[in-house]
Please model this.
Amino acid sequence: MMPFRSATILGAGLMGRLLAVALARAGCRVELFDASGPEADGAAARVAAAMLAPLAESAVAPPSVVRMGHHALDRWPALLAELARPVFFQRQGTLVLWHRQDAAEAARLARVLARTGEQVPELPAMKTLDATGIAALEPALGQRFAQGWLLPEEGQLDNRELLAALLDTLQSMPNVALHWHSPRSLDDVSPRTDERVIDCRGLGARPQWSALRGVRGEVIRVHAPEVTLTRPTRLVHPRYPLYIAPKPGQVFVIGATEIESEDMSPASVRSTLELLSAAYAVHSGFAEARILEIATQCRPTLPDNLPAFRQPRPGVMQINGLYRHGFMIAPALLDVALELLRDGRSALAPRFALPDCLEETSPS
Model:
């Protein structure tokens, strides 16, 4: 039980929906407000591959984020089991490959992943593969790659199935009120003694959290009946890390560019060609794939690229800065948030380099 009876949540992206379900299950009356509609069209979570790959992401993420990702791998099945409809989820590891000309970049990455293994020893160690080992895991790749790694137990889920399942669950809960196309800011809400306000608006919170910035990402969804890949596959590249995430129905999510820009215009010809050419270099079956969508979105990011909690005034919690790791770290942030809301402190937080209690901070 929570020490309050009602909660107002601003923002119905990934964190807002997860928190709304959890608080409603804990017996709270929940009101959820979002500036867009129920399809989460304005949320960064809609434009994502939803890979759960803490060791792979350690190429760009510190140990605290890696630990959040490892925590999430075991938490997602329990969270998904509570939802009103099934969500695609798998843990068959991440396959990492490279072309011969990128062997030096692969060697650099190997050193990074080895250092991560020392800092976060609970992670399963990566397995080195030769051409035969790669073909045994992914026969469709044949002998195209001479070397690779398997990062065991890493996984993925279907982000849009998850957002829809969270929506269905919320709609079935009698103690939840959903308010679409209803933007709210912290200036519009004043929590009562028995109420909490939780701000999960991502970039929408920037008027009250000026340090936030957007980092542009571009993702391509294709239907490729001629491609058979069973697990997320990453291609080592000196300029950007390509990933290919297989989803149900022979749909593949290909990404990801990462641009320090808040431009929300359509993807450029250059980035589209680079992503599709790299995917074709992994599997020639992508030549006949049909492009379903080329999507862009800006991810809410703080100066250190790490997530953060704030309390701008009593009864108000802000959660933001999930950057490119939203699905990988959301369960850890959810569990910390629930401990803070229930107990005023979090035993989990120090493990993730987060504050174990909330102190009032400036709203700027």
Summary: The first helix runs from residue 14 to 25. Helices lie at 14-25, 54-57, 63-81, 103-119, 131-137, 159-171, 269-282, 326-343. Residues 14 and 45 are 6 Å apart (CA to CA). The mean pLDDT is 95.
